[in-house]
């Protein structure tokens, strides 16, 4: 399960700048997908030796009242879920009284704290650090988030403080496809899981579930095997009706990371919300195969169904490769089609692609349409080879590839997608210059 690191500090000290620097690597996949909404607060950092969830807590002012108190509640939730806290302070402002209040709060959690003294660019680092020495935080590091200086050291300092990586035995192949079912509160996740497993199975799995980890529940249907990555949140929900605030992006990210296929559940009776798009964006960021389950299809008349389908088509155009399945978790309709879409997405995501065939496909794509000239020179694409699966990754060697426009990347992606019938999975294309 992905560990969690939270960035905490006053407003304007540079937390979101740091967050962006830490999560930037993920941009590669979604940068070229217009329409993907990014989450300003939650991301996965993959630049260090071990991936982790980063939470930008937005900001504690140190003296919370009214609306601020509500925000502070969310911050506390993040602190609760994190294993390491990065306390960000501003070298230009120096030590502020609110910093003290926030640090007191962090210390109450008993979790390891690293102080990141930001905005040290153009300042004397030693002086800057000295000012915050009074905090007595053993690991106090200089940082310039805006110039991406010190981020690597910060990550390297944080990783050893995380709990041991319990290398959970990856489900062996015979345990089937690992599936995470995610969605907003009330989309129908628990109802679907219950329906798939049968009521008693879920209750049984719940007994052992005192841990907050996503647990794995085996499922067999129509002779196919699956492992449901069931989040603690979903299970708890099945037992006690809980409020919307229990929705945890962190747990959702963790279960997505552990899955091969992500099913994003959408409530057909609600308008598509930003949060739905953000969940889809996270799934793509993670490179996961994706199925969109439009739930509560029962009891809608033809007009409502058409309206709904049209809206989905319009707003989900950026994931038009993901199958939309219309289901009723309550009545159990559409589930066979759902499972079939999961299998197909998994097959696409793990399909083995051969180098010579990829290169031939690349040549055909290149002949059909060449990237536009850059100052009189065309970027050249020479050959391709596979670079991994789930998501299928295609490494393309050439020259001047950094000038390749997003539109051309999309063209190539679609070309490969059609050639290999890669339905239900994002595709990653890595360009490399030189040999
Ligand atoms: P947050 O409210 O803590 O998330 O702070 P932001 O990340 O939004 O940053 C607040 C301001 O500080 C912005 O204007 C940033 O450009 C600036 N800033 C962030 N990091 C640095 C840094 O390393 N050096 C300098 N000079 N400015 C920075
Ligand atoms: P979760 O928060 O995503 O786990 O959602 P639940 O499974 O708890 O479902 C929320 C509510 O929607 C419950 O009242 C369910 O009975 C209802 N619900 C779930 N699936 C369906 C469905 O397919 N059709 C209808 N009409 N209601 C559903």
UniProtKB/TrEMBL annotation:
Family designation: Belongs to the TRAFAC class TrmE-Era-EngA-EngB-Septin-like GTPase superfamily. EngA (Der) GTPase family.
Subunit structure: Associates with the 50S ribosomal subunit.
Gene3D superfamilies for this protein: 3.30.300.20, P-loop containing nucleotide triphosphate hydrolases
SMART domains, per database record: AAA (SM00382)
Role this protein plays: GTPase that plays an essential role in the late steps of ribosome biogenesis.
NCBIfam families in alphabetical order: GTPase_EngA, small_GTP
Keyword Ligase: no
GO molecular function per UniProt: GTP binding; ribosome binding
Chain ranges of the EngA-type G domain: 3-166, 177-350
Residue sites binding GTP 1 per the record: 9-16, 56-60, 118-121
InterPro entries noted in UniProt: AAA+_ATPase (IPR003593), G_ENGA (IPR031166), GTP-bd (IPR006073), GTPase_Der (IPR016484), KH_dom-like (IPR032859), KH_dom-like_a/b (IPR015946), P-loop_NTPase (IPR027417), Small_GTP-bd (IPR005225)
Record protein name field: GTPase Der
Record keywords, A-Z: GTP-binding, Nucleotide-binding, Repeat, Ribosome biogenesis
Superkingdom, natural source: Bacteria
One record GO biological process: ribosome biogenesis
Positions bound to GTP 2: 183-190, 230-234, 295-298
Taxonomic lineage of the native organism: Bacteria, Pseudomonadati, Pseudomonadota, Gammaproteobacteria, Lysobacterales
